[in-house]
Structures are given as structure tokens and as C-alpha cells.
Amino acid sequence: MKNVLFVCVHNSGRSQMAEAYLNALGSGVATAESAGTEPADGLNPTVVQVMEEAGFDRSGHYPKIMTPEMVNRADRIITMGCDVNAGVCPAVFIPSEDWGLDDPKGKSIEAVRKIRDQVREKVEALIRESRES
Questions:
Q1: What's the pLDDT tens digit per position in 8-19?
Q2: Nearest in space to 12 (alpha carbons), one of 77, 61, 55
Q3: Distance between CA atoms of residues 66 and 46, nearest Å
Q4: CATH code for the part of the protein at 3-132
Q5: For a 10 Å CB count at each end of the chain, is N or C smaller?
Q6: 124 contact partners, CB below 8 Å, separation of at least 6
Q7: Strands 76-79, 3-7: parallel, antiparallel or unpaired by DSSP?
Q8: Domain spans of the chain?
Q9: What is the DSSP letter of 69?
């Protein structure tokens, strides 16, 4: 695994957190991009705040639309918790895996902190898996 694409619909929360963690913690193992199919106008401010608490400045980052080029660059595509049954999963047309994480939109800061910590745990497991293979 060299290039990971993290995808969620709005690219304003979970996928941004995963991108930050993998790029910081996965040095030499993998790099990450994140994107969505319906990007929001900006990052979720609560996500920005909890990532700052964890030492990550996301202020210069913004939601991006998923492009065919991003998909082609990716060795692995991970969605963040798409509701596949509702037909809103942005990556159903490409091989991907889903982490099943709650959307931080509208959640309390305590709930967003839990989501942040879940993202970090999953990214750390992904890095361990990559180093072992």
C-alpha cells in the first residue's frame, strides 16, 4: 500500500482526519488524499478544533471533489461510513472498504473527539498492517 484515498460524501470531517493522521504517522509506508462526491464549502469547524487539540492544523485544508485521477493513483480506497443502502456512498463503483464511522456533522465536541480517536486507531492499524505485509 502506497497511496490511500479516504472518501466521504462531503470531505469535511472523517476523511480529512484520516488523511492528516496517515500522512503524519505513516511516513515511509503510505501517503493519503481525501475527497468526496459532494464537497462541503469548508471543513467542519468542530473537526478543525479537535484536530488542533491533537496537534494537527487543518486550517489550510478544504473539501475536494473525488476525481478519476485520485482513484487511479490510489492503491487502496477507504470510505468513512457510507450509508450504502441509501445509495449515498460515493465510492460504490470502485473496489473499496468502509470503516463505518459516524458522521461528525451536528455532533457535540465530545462525540467528535471520539470519532477522531476512532479514526486514529483505524489509521494506526492500517499502518501496522502495511508494515507487516
A1: 989 999 999 999
A2: 61
A3: 23
A4: 3.40.50.2300
A5: C
A6: 21, 25
A7: parallel
A8: 3-132
A9: H
CA distance 32 to 19: 5
> Model-level pTM?
0.89
The answer to whether 54 and 116 have CB atoms below 8 angstroms apart is yes
CA dist 21 → 4, 16, 67, 79, 86 (Å) = 12, 9, 22, 15, 29
For 25-45, what is each residue's pLDDT tens digit?
Answer: 998 899 999 999 889 999 999
- Residue 85: pLDDT band (50, 70, 90) is very low
The cell for 123 is 489509521
- On the 0-12 / 13-18 / 19+ scale of CB atoms within 10 A, 113 is middle
Residue 36 in grid coordinates: 468526496
Q: For 123, which DSSP code?
A: H
